[in-house]
């Protein structure tokens, strides 16, 4: 009996191209996540939610080098620890955190779709569009549910089965933090919201000088602004 190759399985000659595409996608994903995290750390540091050192920008390149160094160093350290002591190899570590992050982002997409519908149906009824603010978010939510289902069912082997619980734990920690901050410093909640919406703003040299002045005041030093310390 002659066996025909399954057309759904790529031929061996395509393997290098598939590998290159996967590697390119992984690198692009890491760069995108890195840049987004750095911009957010910079914005939160600029507004005083996180240590102001994270808002430091390079004197010539005007890039938030402190936030970038912190994010890169933390990621490398986390990867080394989990690769050496938990999973035993970098590939499994990358796959674990990649799946965990993907599931979390997909859930965020669902919350965004629900928020769009609630916001325009309640607060912007004059601008409400059944197509843009109801049907499209509904279809997008249904589409997002498919990969979520594939990530959690059938229930994967440990520790991959912990993804939903880790995300739930992180969400609870965030809600508790938000509740405590809103009771003690309501102004900081508004600041955090502004930081999220302005995380993509370019670093401003004037902002850097302001941060230096505030740091000097806190240290009891001179308040003269300048471009070099």
UniProtKB/TrEMBL annotation:
GO molecular function, one term: transmembrane transporter activity
PROSITE patterns xref list: PROKAR_LIPOPROTEIN (PS51257)
Pfam families reported in the protein's UniProt record: AA_permease_2
Compartments where found: Cell membrane
Skewed-composition ranges (Basic and acidic residues): 209-218
Membrane topology: Multi-pass membrane protein
Biased composition (Low complexity): 219-229
Start and end residues of each stretch annotated as Disordered: 200-229
Main subcellular location of this protein, as a coarse class: membrane
Domain of life per record: Bacteria
Regions crossing the membrane: 20-44, 65-88, 94-121, 133-156, 162-182
Keywords: Cell membrane, Membrane, Transmembrane, Transmembrane helix
One GO location term (cellular component): plasma membrane
PANTHER family the record matches: AMINO ACID PERMEASE, AMINO ACID TRANSPORTER-RELATED
Protein name: Amino acid permease
Organism: Rubrobacter marinus
